[in-house]
Write a structure and sequence with these properties.
By secondary structure, the protein is mainly α. The chain is built from four helices and no strands. Helix 1 runs antiparallel to helix 2 and helix 1 packs parallel to helix 4. The radius of gyration is 20 Å and the shape is elongated. It starts with a helix and ends in a 5-residue tail after the last helix.
Length: 137
Amino acid sequence: MSEMDIWNYATAASSANGTQGIGLAILIGLGFWISGAMYNSTDKNIVGKITASVYMLTVGVFFLFNAAIFEWNINQVAAGLEYLKETTEGISPGGQAIINANDPGAPFSMVPNLVQGLFLLSVLVMQLSGVWMTKKS
């Protein structure tokens, strides 16, 4: 395995993750549309509220998974580069920057960082409040 092989893997993984990110943006937008429709509805029932809530929470889990798989992939790239650094004549300065900026070999974790957590929490609060609150006339 060469450093170029690792960079190619990193590019492919990032591209796939970006495509999932576009899909998540669409799903989050749909969640806001559902929330607005439910908020403006005069005859929403408990089944609709629960179904909409499950959808929004599921999209939140998809968001966490997408962020976690991206972080895991880049950490594995850093681990591969670290291995190459130790077993070959060295790696490029860009490879060293990836090692320094990440946690090589870290296990998969869906725990978000602060910014990701605040973003997801704000989206869910806005969406779920539209589903469960009653519009004041």
